[in-house]
Recover the amino acids of this structure.
């Protein structure tokens, strides 16, 4: 999980670092220079780079990166953010190191032609907490931030303006911060273990799922549910929709149900399946209430109750809790905190 810290929390992390600030700036500048070379095709020799720097640590990171790129053979122009030209000459890269996540005020970015942009920490002018832009910010292709993402990378205009966000490790003591354990962005490594490997000799019916979802004009939820089931590892997905066929991923078996009193069809051969999902996109027409409730009541397999099936349980006679208690198999109501 990628930690997310507010600008104030990040300031506390910086203050707790055992290394002096100059060492951290050297590490950050090196990380920016590496990303810059990657954006320029893997090297710096013969390239032209504009670096916009401010007075704070962000500016220090930018100056260090500028020195490293110049040493690698790039032609580098460093511009003070307060006196930056309104228009920059054509270049191979613009590094935006003017202002960081703690900036408050308004900054108008220069015109940069069509050069790619590498932002340091966050695009200048984007509020590190809210993602709101003051003035005009540069659209970054890549943003290099340090230790943790910031809320401004994820919210408001900052989400789009940040481009791809790379979190560089410069040795900050994040393990000392409670927020680094409580708030984070889930990435691919976090969810990789959720998908259990299927035995190579497994039969499709060993993990079959039936989905009762969708209705005429409301097929999107059914499609997404069926697709999610296949991605989660179901060996066979059987999608049934009241009132006719709905489109589905090609791996999914589809079958129509009657427009009314469709619960018998939904329950037919259900004992062959390991679970049932019911509700997404069924619609809230009165004719779906009794079949929806009866399907949940009588299903002899674990059931995930979502969307309009929840509505059916809520408006039918009797309480939802009573109906769920009468079921002999597991029942999951979504959404819930466990998700």
């Amino acid at each position: 999980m990628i930690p997310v810290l507010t600008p104030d929390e990040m300031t506390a992390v910086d203050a707790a670092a055992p290394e002096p600030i100059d060492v951290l700036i050297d590490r950050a500048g090196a990380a920016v220079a590496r990303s810059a070379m990657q954006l320029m095709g893997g090297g710096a020799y013969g390239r032209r780079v504009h670096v916009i720097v401010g007075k704070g640590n962000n500016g220090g990171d930018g100056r260090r990166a500028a020195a490293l790129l110049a040493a690698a053979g790039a032609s580098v122009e460093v511009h003070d953010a307060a006196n930056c030209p309104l228009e920059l000459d054509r270049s191979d890269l613009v590094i935006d190191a003017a202002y960081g996540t703690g900036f408050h005020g308004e900054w108008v970015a220069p015109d940069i032609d069509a050069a790619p942009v590498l932002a340091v920490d966050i695009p200048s002018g984007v509020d590190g907490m809210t993602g709101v832009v003051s003035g005009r910010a540069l659209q970054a292709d890549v943003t290099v931030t340090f230790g943790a993402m910031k809320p401004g990378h994820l919210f408001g205009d900052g989400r789009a303006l940040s481009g791809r966000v790379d979190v560089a490790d410069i040795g900050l003591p994040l393990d000392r911060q409670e927020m680094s354990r409580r708030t984070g962005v889930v990435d691919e490594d976090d969810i990789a273990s959720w998908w259990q490997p299927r035995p190579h000799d497994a039969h499709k019916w060993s993990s079959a799922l039936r989905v009762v979802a969708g209705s005429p004009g409301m097929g999107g939820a059914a499609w997404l549910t069926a697709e999610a089931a296949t991605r989660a590892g179901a060996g066979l997905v059987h999608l049934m929709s009241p009132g006719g066929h709905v489109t589905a991923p090609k791996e999914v078996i589809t079958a129509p149900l009657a427009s009314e009193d469709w619960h018998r069809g939904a329950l037919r051969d259900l004992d062959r399946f390991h679970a049932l999902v019911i509700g997404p996109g069924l619609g809230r027409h009165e004719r779906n209430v009794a079949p929806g409730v009866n399907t949940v009541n009588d299903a002899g397999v674990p059931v995930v109750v979502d969307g309009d099936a929840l509505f059916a349980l809520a408006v039918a006679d009797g309480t939802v809790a009573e109906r769920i208690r009468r079921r002999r198999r597991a029942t999951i109501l979504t959404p819930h905190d466990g998700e």
About this structure: The chain has a mean pLDDT of 91.
